[in-house]
Amino acid sequence: MKFTGRTWLVLLAGLAAGATLRAEDTRPAEPAKAKSPPATTWNMKDKIVKTDAEWRALLTPEQYRITRQKGTERAFTGAYWNTKQPGVYRCVCCGLELFSSDHKYDSGCGWPSYWQPLKAEHLATAEDRSWNMLRTEVLCARCGAHLGHVFDDGPQPTGLRYCINSAALKFEPKNAPAPSGPKTGPEKAGSDKTGSAPEAPGEPKKPAAP
Ligand SMILES: [Zn+2]
Q1: How many C-beta neighbours within 10 Å does residue 75 have?
Q2: Of the N and C termini of the chain, which has fewer Cβ atoms inside 10 Å?
Q3: pLDDT, tens digit, for every residue of 22-65?
Q4: For position 80, which CATH number holds?
């Protein structure tokens, strides 16, 4: 009978969902240690764990929304999408060094973009299936802050684009004593005017959210 069959299906689906939820609830500490998983690096020794209230007290509402609630700032509105000074970008929540200006590039997407992290082990990644998309979320490996996403449309040599929310970062300019010489000029490819020309010549190519 049709009705019975459907009832069974519903029942089964409900059971499966329940089982999944329960499995996630009672997730064991970390049973996978022998294999050393390559992508997800949640095994930093000095992990920082705070309550929701503690994070809320520590961060601005915008920083809290983005880092602790997986939010996204609007394109071209963040503090660092167009920053070109040399320096280090730290996690706004815990101060861990995450990205370097050496690996920052102008992707045209309106968010700070890097083709590699400062240290791979300072980042964790996770599968993100929100908004009907399959994306790879990027998190701070020490405090679990949501930073943005990583895409595979970046420049060589990695081919990656770490698309990161400015609000998740804290920029620490390098007080370079000798800015002379062509040594520290990673971005002179398409910029003839220095400083006061924030307008990208073309239209944004990849408006994918971080
Ligand atoms: Zn952090």
Answers
A1: 17
A2: N
A3: 444 444 444 434 433 344 445 566 899 999 999 999 999 999 99
A4: 2.170.150.20
